[in-house]
Amino acid sequence: MPGKLKAKIVAGRHLPVMDRASDLTDAFVEVKFGNTTFKTDVYPKSLNPQWNSEWFKFEVDDEDLQDEPLQITVLDHDTYSANDAIGKVYIDIDPLLSSEAATVISGWFPIYDTIHGIRGEINVLVKVDLFNDLNRFRQSSCGVKFFCTTSIPRCYRAALVHGFVEELVVNEDPEYQWIDRIRTPRASNEARQRLISLMSGELQRKIGLKVLEMGGNAVVGYLQCFDLEGESGLVVRAIGTACTLDKLIPGTEIKESPLAHGCRSSHNSPVHSACSSQRLSHSQNFSVSVPTLVFTGTGGSPRICEFPFFTLTCFPPGFLVHIGGVVSARSVKLLDRIHNPDEPETRDAWWEEIRQEIKSHAKALGCHAVVGYSESTTICEEVCILSASGTAAMLNPRFMREGSVCVYSRFDDASPPSCGFCHIPYDEFNMPFPAQLTYCYHCRRQKVPDVLFTTIDLPAEAAVTGKGCLIQARLCRTKKKAQGEVNATAISNLLPFMEYELHTQLMNKLKLRCMNALFGLRIQISVGENMLLGLASATGVYLSALPAPGGIQIAGKTPSDLSYDQHISTMQKRINDTIVMNKELYNIHPPECIEEVVGSPIPDRQRSRLFRSTSESSDELSELDLSHGKKDAFVLEIDDTDAVEDIQSLLTDAPIPAGFYSCNTEVMPGIYNWTSGLQMFTSVRVYRLNNANLTNQGLNKIFTDLCENLLKSLYFKLRSMIPCCLCHLNFTVAVPEEELIQVRRHTPKNTSPILSIFPRNILVSIRELEFSVCFCFPGSGENEEQLQFSMELCGESTSSNNQPTAKASVSSVDYGSFADRCSTWLELLRLKAHTIRRGSVKTKVRSRSLRSTRSLPCGAPVTVVKMTPLSFLPRTRIVKYLGIINMFFIRETTSLREEGGVSGFLHSFIAEVFAMVRAHVAALGGNAVVSYSMKECVFMENPNKNQAQCLINVSGDAVIFVRESDQEAIPPLITSGQTSTTGADGTT
Amino acid sequence: MPCYWWRDHGTWCSVLPAFCQPVSDAVKVRMDEGALLECEANPEVLTSDTMDQFRTFQMCERLLHSPTKLGSQLLYQIPAQNQIILIERYYEFDSVFAREVLGKKLSKGTKKDLDDISCKTGITLKSCRRQFDNFKRVFKVVEELKGPLVENIQRHFLLSDTLARDYAAIVFFANSRFETGKRKLQYLSFQDFAFCAGQLISYWTIGAMDSMMEDMDVDLEKEFLNELKDLKVLVNDKDMMDQHKILVCAALRGKIKVYKLMEVNFKNLSRALINLASKLTHTKDVRDLFIDLVEKFIEPCRYDRWTVAEITLFLTHYTNAAHCLGTFRHQMIWDRYMGVIKSCILQMYHE
């Protein structure tokens, strides 16, 4: 009985009218935890009830505290009929269980209903009294901290990194239970929301247990996903990196490096991690991956390793010794072949298989660890593709706990930090794949490859020439409709080719930009009924340590034809021009290196290596050499239409407009002067293809245009904000299932220009994307210029100060994005109506608002909560981590058209999700969410019935931050308003 | 002016096709403005961007209907300054439009006339509807409230002082249903009427005299209007009228060019103003206040080519002279009446 949960319902506001007769509501609240329910009194006839309830006390096990959410239901009392539910609030009380995090949850929460959305707000107070219980056999793991951040959190120091933790729980999906036939959609949605909340609580607790067994106290890079397998169940799985974190006391400088050898012994735990998980699997009857492989390091004595995987993408200095390259594995599975779908064993075995494969790939690259590791799935009907990828690397063993990673013998060659990680980890004479090596351009002592692909962030100490940029490869492949095994075979046959082509595209685009390394590589393959989509995004950079990339040469197959030759030479010229232009654009001016010390006899070839293999349900491993078979300079041969298309796509990539930078990593390589202005955007796009038999090329074109347009519309939206940088651009593609598509047989030519560009059918793909916009200022102009954005709104007085660069004409229209949307709009229509009046009125309003000291009503202003997918906020210091935010929402509508179609529906849903996330963070006492990500956004639609459903899963870390200096007091315009902006942008 | 508006869920279906119209119009306007030249935009991007903004606006609009909620709602994180601007912009109106609805009942019937107003003023129908709905919404809220009108409007709609005053005028006119539509009144602008309304609110309502009075600002003070009957003595009493004339003439001799005409017309002018005052007990005559002022006073003066300065002088002395009449005992009422009438006439005396 180690915990007492206390909750108090204070008040409600803006409640909906539930009684049409009186236009009022008789509201009361049910507070439920586990199986205990309390009720408040009915507060009659008010839309702003003041319950001011007593403290409701729940005495519960800490196991339950971790698993269960506190469930608050607001109802309308009805004397004659059943009480109507207004909505619910789920509060995850996990943050209260850790001593360092929040102590109380208190604030206004939006009342959410899965059919109606947000309906008013409720003020709640929650506290937990925990009794210390040192039961060795306890099932709870209170106190283990979780972080979504994939680096060591800012106010902590990593004493030890223990290694990989994973867990998976399975349950029946409420939507597929027999009872779903008779219950309301609302009940079904709520059952699902509650179940997922419970399952993620359980998952977190189990992972916490593993961490405790390993002797750690935190999980960093916690990545939780759910798979909606349909009939076979609902899977929630998570991976993370177990660490022992020490809190840094602000102000004290840590001089002693965390590498001190003493650490190792001080943290010894009686059980080895490997054994512990084994024991766990017996005692609790749930499966974990059992260590099966004994890995022998090159130098050290044989040790037992489980999976030496790290979900981190950013490391403390010195942690990363060498990087081998990207390793990835995919596997196609049939969900209807699972023997007992309710048990996790089968899925555990699948993942186990994939991880083994990754590990063996890493081993082949001479590496003993995989960093930047992530796992994902894509499901279409009964076919499921499991993917895992990471970066093979050598790590500094002094950070590790004994046994988690094997010691690397050659560790003591002191490589300079700025280039050490580029040096090859594998044996030069026994290379895993043909590669061209040169001596490092930085230290001239070690060999480096000529191209490096990784899934991690650019190490802070790396030497980079010029700036980085976002590089994307996009690919569509059609496939025949098929069932079961045939389908799975078809898919697994296609996969290698897709990977190959994505890889080629990436390589070409990299060369075209005159860069030699990719960071943050993320390849997503989604499967649909009759097509496969591949999208690879990464940030290209020019690493100073690596050799300059050669150009691209085009070779024709039939040199006899004169016009053909001419065609080729013009193409070649265009490519060369583009390379020169890009060099200028990205400011890449490497020091000319003449001496061509080639260490390997193998001539110039493409060699960053992607190990992949596909296995259908069987275990056959197939390896594919992704390097091009050409023996001479990097040549693109135009021998068929495919190649022409390749080159076309290479050249049609629209250049980024001036003043914009984009990358998918946390920080933009080559840009260092950030301002604290930051905002986040989420944009979802739904696209319908017509029924025509599209070819691969046609599809590719459409897909590429879609991506390009998405980027373009972002640039367009932000045009008044330049210079700015789009960081952590995260694309997700999905091809929803067939059933919803089949319904849409009717093909009305939609009159609206935006609602559909093609007559509807065949394929719906959802694209979702989130990223952070950071404002940066190239050159020196610091504070004054900085104000330019923030003050734009506040009136003439300031805008006149920073005249020289201010784009007066534009800025007057756009007030930062939120206001932007409305005001540009207002402006626009005003313009339409009264061209003459416009100027005078505007200034009037502005000066008025400047003077205006009218405070807005309703007492305390709503706390401003920033949201960002980055793990930090530029120019601020995170002082406290308050706990993980992991929320799951379902929204359903039976009046899709009335809510503004797909776009309107998604737009408002995402805005609501944001509001709920912010409210939870504010209630914890935080003022920002970092490492925010929308893990899942599943959209389903049935236009015939005018219905749609959307599931969203978001996660992040709630934090308190403070500005680094008070002088930098940025008016709230920039700092706050933008986060609220939901660019739910839909094309139906 | 924002012209898209969201009525309620029920009518949305029928509105949907119309929704596309403003979007494509807006896109066209933006294209003409040269938006495509920026950031390599193409029509598709521009359309989607515009659509996006319409959607955002549509979601905000619901909040803008009760601005006080905007500050406490959690759905949008809008900085305070932006909130103020949003509200201000949303509640702004075209004075041309306001002039048309001024004094009309803010009801369904009038709403039907919006088509005509739209044609007449060149303001889009949607914009007209928004403005009309704003008027109506403000009217509904403050109609029954006690206390000063302008403050009530400011408290419930968070408008700036100037805008709140304009709304107060509109509410005031709509409540008293002043006649403003007659052809002879067409030359008067919204600003003219708003000024007059301000005067009436400030001096002729109950709230005007007694700020502690917990009553409405919307209605003219009945008691005062009754007392105005007493002013009749100024025209009914022959002696008093003559004496009044002598005093005014003495003061104005040589100071105004139209002296001769003034001397001839004095009695008519005086009678016009006094009769107007005495009639105000009838609601019908209150409504005709402005048309009466124009017909009985302003037009004769204009016919005789009085200048504004001359009218100012005349009215000043006309008011002051009454104080010197030994037998005239209604000084307070007189000042309260003439003060407003004078400033209204001066505001209204132009081409």
From TrEMBL, chain A:
Transmembrane segments: none annotated. GO terms for cellular component: cell cortex; cytoplasmic vesicle membrane; plasma membrane; ruffle. GO terms for molecular function: calcium ion binding; calcium-dependent phospholipid binding. It is found in: Cell membrane; Cell projection, Ruffle; Cytoplasm, Cell cortex; Cytoplasmic vesicle membrane. GO terms for biological process: insulin receptor signaling pathway; intracellular protein transmembrane transport; positive regulation of D-glucose transmembrane transport; positive regulation of protein targeting to membrane; positive regulation of vesicle fusion; protein localization to plasma membrane. Keywords: Calcium, Cell membrane, Cell projection, Cytoplasm, Cytoplasmic vesicle, Lipid-binding, Membrane, Metal-binding, Protein transport, Transport. The lineage of its organism: Eukaryota, Metazoa, Chordata, Craniata, Vertebrata. CDD domains: C2_KIAA0528-like. Signal peptide: none annotated. Gene3D superfamilies: C2 domain. Residues 1-109 form the C2 domain. The keyword RNA-binding does not apply. This is C2 domain-containing protein 5. Its main location: membrane. InterPro entries: C2_C2CD5, C2_dom, C2_domain_sf, C2CD5, C2CD5_C, C2CD5_YbjQ-like_dom, C2CD5_YbjQ-rel_dom. The keyword Membrane applies. PROSITE patterns: C2 (PS50004).
Automatic annotation (TrEMBL), chain B:
This is Acidic fibroblast growth factor intracellular-binding protein. The gene is tmem223. It holds the Pfam family FIBP. GO terms for cellular component: nucleus. It comes from Oncorhynchus tshawytscha. One of its GO terms (biological process) is platelet aggregation. PANTHER family: ACIDIC FIBROBLAST GROWTH FACTOR INTRACELLULAR BINDING PROTEIN, ACIDIC FIBROBLAST GROWTH FACTOR INTRACELLULAR-BINDING PROTEIN. One of its GO terms (molecular function) is fibroblast growth factor binding.
